[in-house]
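[step 3/7] inverse_fold.run input=structure_tokens len=529
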């Protein structure tokens, strides 16, 4: 399948960071004159995607300091150098990273000369002569199609679906956390209201900044000075009622959690064995490699570390018995360099092993139950490994102490719907919210996807989930796997929609890592063949 100039045709659907990483990997391995790459994405600028839009509010922060944005430099250099940043400890706005990715795409576009389509793909179909796409017209045939959508349109979970119907019926504000600019516009009318926030993760910390700093408030000397434009109360809540632990405050503190080389070798060996084991045995094998660094970093007894890990396997977070504010204060002290407990220490080690985790998990083929177990274990540890900047935790604590953030219903409250809003029945009594923010990221599951292109591929058998609640089954080269295990000829999936075939996909580093390289190498090999 060649165009009028004899070039093989490649389609990339989605040009956020994931699509950018894939296109860069392909450009590094194939002669541009041999390929006609066509990019489909209605979002501009290309490279950034909606999550890192240059137009996003500067109050929405990256959860990495500048020094830790260690991705391959591309044609415009490393992020810190491009940004002109001398303070490696600063957690920059996500929009800064978006502008950087947009600059990388401009450089790539000059070299690769792709055909650009500012349109959303509504249909992907295999015909006799190759793959065809519908996107404000019919395009094809393509030898290869890569989908990289980060979070495609999906059905809301049952709770959110009920809330959406309730909000429509009673004219109530129900606002997604992102884009932050839209969230901030909605919040301009919430002065004096009680606002609930579904979730207590990184997104909620952005929401709190939007509802305070974004409305004219200020944080000074550990306290909060209100503007009078913010809500009267903010009621965050989640299933476990715990805020994520902040990352170590400085490079020096962070280095104290570095695993020793022998510990890393032991983890790599354990993971290599684990992927061939049943789910329970796989988790036990991986956890065994965490015991030594846990003992070394905390001074805890081996049995204590093993008990913590056993609880983590069975019920992530169940080890935490402190109330939310007490746990937050304790984790802040650990982030500043205080003595770390087992959970905090192991979470930092796990963060530092993310590349090894991907290298051992992603190319391996394993039982679906094993993949699901390892993925869920990694997700559970994100409360430590994907933590926010210490500043965000300090701001949350200041808002709690100021009485603006009310934690009385933080721990999985019963929620009743009333015409005036939502009543949260928590340990501290019944609290009524007249507006609600949804700050929960949808799971990377293929089953509830309603995006027409991906849903059709699923419904016609080209895509199927690794296991219930997970993304599409793919090969190490990212080719979609059919139900019988055969790779689909020329159809590939990278990113969240392949969760379960790959792991740790929410890290920006994964967009420019080995997964994209394997896909590009596979494309070149197939086209040569």
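[step 3/7] decode complete -> sequence:
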């Amino acid at each position: 399948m060649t165009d009028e100039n004899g070039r093989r045709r490649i389609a990339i659907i989605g040009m956020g960071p994931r699509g950018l990483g894939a296109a860069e990997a392909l450009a590094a391995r194939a002669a541009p004159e041999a390929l006609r790459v066509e990019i489909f994405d209605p979002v501009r600028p290309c490279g950034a995607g909606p999550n890192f839009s240059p137009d996003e509010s500067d109050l929405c922060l990256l959860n990495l300091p500048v020094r830790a944005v260690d991705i391959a430099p591309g044609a415009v250099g490393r992020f810190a150098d491009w940004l002109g940043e001398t303070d490696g400890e600063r957690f920059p706005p996500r929009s800064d990273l978006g502008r950087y990715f947009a600059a990388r795409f401009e450089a790539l576009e000059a070299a690769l000369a792709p055909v650009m389509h500012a349109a959303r793909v509504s249909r992907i179909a295999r015909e006799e002569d190759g793959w065809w796409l519908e996107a404000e017209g019919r395009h094809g045939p393509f030898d290869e199609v890569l989908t990289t959508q980060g979070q495609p349109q999906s059905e809301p979970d049952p709770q959110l679906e009920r809330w959406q119907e309730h909000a429509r019926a009673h004219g109530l504000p129900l606002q997604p956390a992102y884009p932050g600019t839209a969230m901030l516009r909605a919040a301009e009318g919430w002065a004096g209201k009680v606002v609930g926030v579904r979730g207590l993760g990184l997104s909620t910390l952005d929401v709190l900044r939007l509802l305070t700093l974004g409305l004219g408030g200020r944080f000074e000397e550990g306290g909060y000075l209100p503007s009078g434009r913010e809500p009267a109360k903010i009621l965050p809540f989640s299933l476990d009622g715990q805020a994520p632990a902040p990352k170590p405050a400085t490079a020096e503190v962070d280095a104290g959690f570095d695993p020793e080389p022998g510990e890393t070798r032991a983890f790599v060996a354990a993971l290599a064995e684990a992927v061939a084991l049943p789910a329970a045995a796989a988790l036990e094998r991986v956890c065994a490699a965490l015991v030594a660094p846990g003992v070394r970093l905390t001074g805890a007894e081996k049995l204590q570390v093993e008990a913590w890990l056993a609880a983590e396997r069975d019920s992530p977070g169940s080890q935490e018995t402190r109330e939310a504010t007490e746990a937050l204060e304790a984790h802040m002290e650990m982030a500043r360099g205080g003595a770390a407990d087992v959970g905090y220490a192991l979470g930092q080690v796990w963060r530092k092993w993310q590349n090894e985790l991907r290298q051992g998990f992603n190319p391996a083929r394993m039982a679906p139950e094993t993949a699901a177990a390892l993925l869920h274990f990694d997700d559970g540890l994100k409360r430590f490994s994907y933590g926010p900047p210490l500043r965000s935790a300090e701001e949350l604590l200041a808002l709690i102490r100021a009485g603006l953030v009310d934690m009385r219903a933080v721990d999985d409250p019963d929620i009743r719907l009333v015409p005036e809003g939502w009543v949260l029945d928590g340990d501290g009594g019944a609290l009524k919210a007249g507006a609600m923010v949804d700050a929960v990221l949808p799971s990377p599951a293929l089953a509830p996807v309603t995006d027409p292109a991906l849903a059709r591929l699923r419904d016609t058998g080209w895509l199927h989930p690794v296991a219930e609640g997970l993304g599409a089954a793919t090969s190490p080269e990212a080719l979609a796997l059919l139900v019988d295990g055969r790779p689909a000829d020329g159809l590939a999936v990278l990113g969240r929609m392949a969760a379960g075939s790959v792991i740790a996909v929410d890290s920006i580093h994964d967009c420019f890592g080995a997964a994209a390289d394997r896909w590009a190498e596979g494309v070149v090999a197939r086209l040569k063949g």
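[step 4/7] annotate
The longest strand covers residues 487-493.
The chain has a mean pLDDT of 95.
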